[in-house]
């Protein structure tokens, strides 16, 4: 078997040697790990991973190949891919081609055969950090220099890369009941689908959409999606959201949409040491006490008091969901107006469907004028 | 929701004896449950008839009842203890069935006992196929969950009528409410249907079978689900079967996590599982749900669910580090998952789903060599007796580790040069039928040039797995053709699980040379951690597995460490009893300040619970794997030594290799082990001590064997050397049979001689377990076998204290035991078998290790023998242990107080699990080859009641009235007269064959003559034969001793028919006259009435007080 050598160099100088996987080349990004055992195709095509090189903790990746149905967006977004044991054959009745070929076709540079658990432990102890993969050079020092020269994730804004250029409409499945303006920060395909299944016509709009453009479609609610980068750089969309909230238009946010909501409520955001990326995260709904197993992909979080309520420009707010592993804020709601958001992924692709009820909550908020958010 | 405060005492039901389909995984789950409940301050009452379990140790419950798990005895325990609740979801199907019976008999209501874990309604919804089908139908249609098309039948006619509606043959037959798939099978035609459904109807307690459309060859998955009172549900583990549908999960090679599902498909199975546990209404605790997935289009069929903790739960717990039984016990008493911490991370809660960054492979271990007549095809009816699990960083590594964990020389893949002539077509035909060892044949087919498509077509094994096998083969080819073992190649081979021995075979080198090269090149494994979270959080529990990766996670330590080598996969002859001793050593040594390190590969056991030792290595028990662990631990801190004498023959077999590698062995030294195991050396030990042994010789050819046999006189006992469990052992009465035996024992050679011993007819066989410290002997217990010598000690019932031996005989046994222990040089445990014949005490054999009977003796005498042994091995003396209170201050197991209870051990046989190729049951005769899978203990003040309890706890209890059928061999006729007469006096109607009836009539016992199978009916005699009567359940007890020479040869057809009919109908069948005498005593005790129950703790107090009195 002929293999091309590849190296992975972290910004703190740690080096892993393996073999090239996917495209041959060089890439630099923030190295993060994802613990999902299934769903690599969804992960790769999740725009929130823009700017990141993803290491999979599950050793066997690619077993089911790639199919045409499970893409979460039009392309692969990760800036690099790290796996231990890539599949040599694909086996699934829906599979259309191999993962290796797909990565190569989309020019995604990867490395395989390294001790991914050692890498994960390293990132856990020292935090997510910049790193580079190269299958074109074996010169560690040179690659390290390029890695340390690259910008970090703090202050990074990728919205222009991932958002849609133009508004498009996902029609409601069955009878149309509601209209939602969904602001695309890198929206996953499953999200409008989950809304459409509930009779919502979803207008997916660019991140640059103005309040006026949003209200022009007379939406029953506004939605802001997941997306990559540092939430602290989202001034425009935060300003738009403030206008939406001032108008008391029902609001639902996911992931970056949660962080933007937090900022609109004058809460701060911060970078987690190594983030939450996986599909097994226990989140407690503080309003019911129930625990749901949820899909996560976030490196930043909102800073809010978990107990009690806090004041916002739109009346009192509260934390509605919390991750039981580390007490990170996973959901926010306003008490006196129909607006809420979660940090994790109720659309769950990949991941468990436990939080799908949140889309029902959004529908309830929009259909019942008297209801209160987060109830 | 916090713990319920209204539950002050809980009755836990165990799973009884180890049988196929229900093994020590329920000791693991029950032990965890007992621990948890006691930690919560709840009074734990336990009933389990199996003395070899850890859970029945007196310190694991407040009141431990080693009593039969029958409605009668469970009710007695309830009446005596009045528990608030009953927890029956952790004791397998046995406990669940007992709970249902208790409910149906109104016992739970009568005593106000709440059933916790799963309600009766949920149990029935989950287990009754029709209602389960209804459950599946309630799920949202878009989830795509279906049930296989099926029809419920209560009669054979309904079965025959049902086939068309299912699309014709083949159809699957599944009896309701049986464990381990007992009685199920695949019928390809009407004849099959008659056979399988017929026995299924008989086996099912509700006379119900289900016929189902065949989904043979579909992918098979299993999800382990956990739910709490707040309706939080998590999936603990997904398991994929490498062997597709058609092979029972227990007999399949299984892999965790699932390898060939996309997230969309996996989440659909997850949704369905959660929907099902909610709809069935398993309120709290674990359950598993099995799925079949059509590889063509993804159609999902829900096969079944177990509303309880199962064998798969134990596997999933070990595979993920998520202790299902422990958490199930906590949620059963009211906790919610988010209130329970994850043991391993200690900081995150149990309300999450484990994620794995490694691959787990489980492989079954079979025992077909013990049942040569049995059909070895794998079906939906479980046949394996044990399993091994291995963990690797990828599938190939895990698979190859698992195969070598089986400890069968032929289990691992093998690329020997002489095997190059492989016939592809023949191999493809062979692998199209699942059987033990199929995977190896698949590998041979790959070597023979079969394409992945051909392999898939023949086996329906998923192409991804087939490719992984191809990858292994490619590496073997690289190893074959490489000019030298380069570090790159060696590392690549090791990363895919090749052992030093495998590489050596391929390269024509010894294992030691490969190891030397490997070490010189610095290619050594690292140890990773099972942490439930793929390293997302730091792990506090050192639960390790090896991998050829970069970074090791073994932490340095300061305390001196002792490695305890476990016993590997369960097999006949080496099972839970050895795990018991290993666990005890871990507990005992931890108490006295050692760091305990367990090495084992059996996922069912308590020893592989990460709570048992300070460190756990889930690794194969081969020399290579153990040496690497020793090396890693020596790097981590001081290592005092390795314990090899508690895990049975497996670790004992490693002793010499370890010693050669300068690894210190604690306790009895390898040279001493050799003295006991090597025939000539042992004979010298006996001669020096002036102890007699039966005359014997060693033959390397038939001619020599014949000479020896003539010299010492027939009958002779013949067997291969170095065996455990009496493998291949037979009693031979004449030259013809001897020739036949040697002919069949093809392995005979100068390296593999056959031992020929004089067989002592009519001897009393005695088993002794003792401790020796170099100076003092502590006689643990003296057990008298109930069956005559010639029945393997593991299959023979025995009594402790010995019921017919006097004090003088026990003293002779003590003196002989001491002489042997001293002569061999034992430090720790020794087990010796004696035979008392014509007042001569012959020494049959000695094993310088823990025996199968250690747990039984420990419980019967209230003395923790294995704990004491562990401390002796580390240097304490018997006197010191007496002073420390580990051993009694005075006396020992040979001198029990007069009011000590009688303990009877009875073996449990797996005959009802095996069918011949013609579909008949295998013969049930006992012989010198061990075939039992488990044991029960009957415990009471007198022998009769203790024996009766042991029979009730084993499969079939003794009757107190009805008909007894007697047919005995001529040599047994004298011995049977008195006991049969007694049965007649007790009111039994006696049926007998003509010959036996005549003898009985002469002795004043009237017997109805019953026609034998091959006899024409006499004038006026009923046409029905004894076999008919058995099938009509018109006989309550059968006494049938083998006619003529039997054990290895062919039993006369009539006896065979009778015995197998008895197995089919579940009627007690006694095959020895000694067993008959004991049974009569038991029946007398039962008829006299009032058999009480008493806890082990109460009996312990009686023994302890008696000792100090």
Labels describing this entry:
heterodimer, A: 375 residues, alpha/beta, Glucose Oxidase, domain 1, Rossmann fold, 11-stranded mixed beta sheet, 7-stranded mixed beta barrel, disordered C terminus, B: 1109 residues, 8-stranded mixed beta sheet, 38 helices, 36% helix, globular
What is the CA–CA distance across the termini of chain B? 51 Å
- Quick one: how many beta strands of chain B? 39
> What would the average pLDDT of chain B be, to the nearest integer?
91
What are the segments of chain B in which pLDDT stays under 50 over at least 5 consecutive residues? 1045-1052
What would CATH call the homologous superfamily of the largest domain in chain A?
A: Class I glutamine amidotransferase (GATase) domain
CATH topology of the largest domain in chain A: Rossmann fold
Coarse structural class of chain B:
alpha/beta
Helix content of chain B: 25-40%
pLDDT < 50 runs, ≥5 residues of chain A: 370-375
Q: Please tally the β strands of chain A and state the result.
A: 20
Task: Give the overall silhouette of chain B.
Answer: globular
